[in-house]
Amino acid sequence: PISTSVSQQYPQVSCTTSDVTASADILQIAADVRDQLTPLLQLGSNWRFPVNIHIIAPEDPLTGKVRHESVSVVAADGTLKIWAFLPSNDPNAREFIQRQFVTALLWEKFFPKKQTFDTQTRLDIVPTWLIEGLREWLNDDPEHDRASIVRRATQLQLAPTLDEITSWREVSDDRLLGLW
User: Fold this and answer.
1) Are 37 and 102 in contact (CB under 8 A)?
2) Cα(109)–Cα(89) distance, integer angstroms
3) Would you call 114 exposed, middle or buried from its count of C-beta atoms within 10 A (0-12, 13-18, 19+)?
4) Per residue in 28-83, pLDDT tens?
5) How much helix, strand and coil, in percent to the nearest 5, is found in the chain?
């Protein structure tokens, strides 16, 4: 049977699937991502934005409708909620799942605590390059190692600090392109 498991550590995180092992793994990924990024981003101890990961197994009624990764963001009850869907055989599942958790954690850093959300809320305030960079950092991905680029930009005093980046109100994906 398909059920939704909720993280005991972070009740805002849940996983819907018929695969109990996959569900436990996903909830653990959420805890690991939070544990690794909290000191870097200086986050509080509570998960602020809900994230549900739905793994579509062959017996799931959504099997015919969801054939690839998809995400929807819903503004409800004054907050944003991430609903992510992916097939159980997705070869890039871990990266996709981490991307959702990293996005939610960056929202915690970028959006003021008292802000309410609606359909006019700009989600692109968190740049894709930052989401992907932190996701890659979590995995120490050797194929996408940008350490030498960052090192050079830092040595030349061209690289912004994390405090500067997180205080930017509007960032395009290519704002830092000139550094690289």
Assistant:
1) yes
2) 33
3) exposed
4) 999 999 999 999 999 988 899 999 999 988 888 888 887 789 898 988 888 889 99
5) 40, 15, 40
Token representation of residue 48: 């602020």
**Interval 99-136: pLDDT, tens:** 999 999 999 988 888 888 877 888 877 888 888 888 88
Spatial neighbors of 66 by CB under 8 A, at least 6 apart, are 56, 85, 86, 87
Query: Coil, strand or helix: which one is 28?
Result: helix
Among 107, 119, 98, smallest CA distance to 48 is for 107
Count CA atoms closer than 13 A to 159's CA, side-chain side: 14
Please tell me the pTM assigned to this model: 0.76
Distance CA 159, CA 173 (A): 15
- Assess contact for 62 and 72: CB atoms under 8 A: no
3-state secondary structure of 118: coil
CA atoms of 159 and 165, how far apart (whole Å): 10
pLDDT higher for 1 or 94?
94
Strand partners, 72: 83
H/E element, 155: helix 147-155
CA neighbor of 30 nearest in space, from 109, 120, 105: 105
Rounded distance between C-alpha atoms, residue 75 and residue 117, angstroms: 6
